[in-house]
Design brief:
This protein is an alpha+beta fold. The chain has one domain. Helices cover 40% and strands 17% of the residues. It has 3 helices and 4 strands, in the order αβαβαββ. The strands form 2 sheets. Strands 1-2 form a two-stranded parallel sheet. The chain has a two-stranded antiparallel ribbon with strand order 3-4. A hairpin with a 2-residue loop joins strand 3 and strand 4. Helix 2 crosses helix 3. It is globular, with a radius of gyration of 14 Å. The chain starts with a helix and ends with a strand.
Length: 92
């Protein structure tokens, strides 16, 4: 994750000629984090997607961990959350 962030943040800060908003795709990157570190990271993700830096970035975060989905829902209650089961996608 640190390596990805190192490449993302300079692109996010580019302001000329047009601010760039980047899509981010993450797959289970928090699985080995303790709960406090995971929540701090989720809050950083929420700030990145909220447009607090003047750019609203889209994030696709994939997890099969119910507690991570709950944390994401708690920290970013307005975020769209989808479940995939038995070949079907549904919003939760």
């Amino acid at each position: 994750m640190a390596r990805r962030s190192r490449h993302i943040w300079p692109c996010v800060k580019i302001t000329r000629p047009v601010p760039k908003a980047l899509p981010l795709i993450m797959d289970e990157i928090l699985v080995n984090f303790d709960l406090q570190r995971a929540e701090r990271t989720v809050r950083a993700f929420a700030a990145l997607t909220s447009g607090s830096d003047g750019k609203s970035h889209q994030m696709l975060y994939f997890t099969c961990q119910p507690h991570m989905a709950d944390m994401l829902r708690r920290v970013a209650p307005d975020a769209a959350l989808f479940a995939v089961a038995d070949g079907n996608i549904r919003q939760v």
